[in-house]
């Protein structure tokens, strides 16, 4: 049973990002985009897995509909997080998009091998970042058919 | 024993053998035919006994056999014949000593003349000479003490024979008894003793006091003349003197005086001649020696003056000669090395090169190595090793071809080479590090810069016109600065990637690369209305992506820096004949002042303000780096207002991509 992402209820997005500047920038851009999004933020890979497995302080958080994952993270890096998500029966269906400053071929290949749903480079120009966020919202949260969080 | 080539002097001994053979044979024929004058050779002389004559025949044959061409069987047969003759003599001796008739006296022919006390028995002297001759012939060729004994016997025979012969010649019959030892000796005996004695003295191959006279040295030649003058010249003088007196030309006293004077003149003349020739000879010898010393000195001086160690080696790899530098270099004294194998100082690689093997002669082996500098390892007397370079050259000598090896200690050169390699290594490493640094720095710099740029842009978006005009300006400068810095870092990153991430060079169509570049420049060409034309372009050895970049940067520049007219660009390539191609990208743009030709290819070098033309000034630096990475050269031909032609060379490729 699937539902379209373009429903009236807000979508929960988990942002895994350690740089406060990037977190804030992403928050600002999402806010400006006026998309119906609840943005949840964790700063490293360990926190990300705790969030997704609802461990400790995250016992009552909503399951995200979409994950934005940076590769370079303290404690547990994005590649490991990705491997854990895609290796977990309960989590592997959540669309996970890599959003990072790296554009190295090796990182791109590795990410897709670990079944990332997309690999995006953080644009240098603000305007480009804004349009990227709009694209994400438009494609993943509006156009793409996703498995329902409630049906999972 | 000197077994030199056969010479005429080798015929002396066999010829001497003919004398007893012929005399003995004639006497035997005389005995058998009953003609007594034949038995005594000349009329009025004592006949030789038949058994003695047989002995002489045997001895003559023995001498012929033992002194002819070397052959063991001939020599053995000769010895047997001589021993048989000796036995005849021994039997006669026994008869003389014991006074018993052994039947030897009339062994062959019965002497019925009855004139002698013992009919048919040979004279005592004949018996002695038979024994001595036999001994001398049997001992032929012996050296050492026995050889000396043989020589002594020959000398006695020769002297007595000579004495008796002169007695017969001068008609002094009493001399033919030889010191009155017994009855008169037959001419055959005298001549045989003389001949065999002469043969024993004239033996060239056995060292003896007289053999040296037969050598080929000037001294020996002189000595031969003196000896001949003595033993032949003096008797001739005597014979003439005596003959004159005999026919009544002058009295005996006059004859004696004449002979003494003539002999004195002969001896003095020969002496003078000997002295003169000896002087001439010693003078020539001294000159030759001086020349030799001079030559040796010059060569030796050359050897010692040579800056390198010099070692002369023979064909078997033995050291023949060396100079002071070689002594120093290897830490040996001259005496310790001469005659030693060269492998003592150069363990491997040298002897193998010059010593002949199954495949090549020593000469060929050497010829293959002449003039080549061979790097080997030398070993000092203390066992330490050091790098050397040797140069070989042949040296003709009496002992055959020698090899002169100039040996240079190349320790310092090796160290310098090593240091150079190390420096190159370090340079390469530091270049790689620099490239990595540029890449990492520019990559990591992008991160904070993105923050600066993003937030200043966010500020600008949200607060433009909501603060005062100064704030708007300041934010504008910050945004502009951040943007430019981003572009610089991007370009720096790109530039560093040309060297570090380029693909391997392969055949690439430069025409296809040009088409790619034109496609990338489509919007710039469209906006400017530029007309870009090109000739057919060759296949070159290149990194295709970088070739596209090269064309793109050059054509992009040509369009960007256009003149008042419509931009027109033409790309062509001409072969330079050495397998390379010279490309030309010609435009009708503003042109460049020649004083800037070098500067424009530098990093971030600009000739215009940012307000006139955007860009960081990295384009031509990238072009230069690309061309140089391809082993080519890039330059520009231009002048202000004339348009520009950028030229670069690339290596052609025979195969098509």
Structure in words:
The complex is a heterodimer of chains A (152) and B (657). With 152 residues, chain A is an alpha/beta fold. Chain A has a single domain (8-146), classed as Response regulator (Rossmann fold, 3-Layer(aba) Sandwich), CATH 3.40.50. Chain A contains five helices and seven strands. In chain A, strand 4 (66-69), helix 3 (78-86) and strand 5 (96-100) form a beta-alpha-beta unit. Mean pLDDT of chain A is 84; it is low at 1-8. Chain B has five domains: 8-205, no CATH class; 212-294, no CATH class; 306-409, PAS domain (Beta-Lactamase), CATH 3.30.450; 415-497, Orthogonal Bundle (Helix Hairpins), CATH 1.10.287; 504-651, Histidine kinase-like ATPase, C-terminal domain (Heat Shock Protein 90), CATH 3.30.565.10. The chains are: A alpha/beta (152), B alpha+beta (657). Chains A and B meet through helix 1 and helix 5 of A and helix 14 of B.
Nearest-integer average pLDDT of chain B: 82
What is the global morphology of chain B?
A: rod-shaped
Q: Which structural class best describes the helix and strand composition of chain B?
A: alpha+beta
Name the strands of the widest sheet of chain A in spatial order. Answer: 3-2-4-5-6
Poorly predicted parts of chain A: 1-8
Alpha carbon gyration radius of chain A = 14 Å
Supply the CATH architecture of chain A: 3-Layer(aba) Sandwich
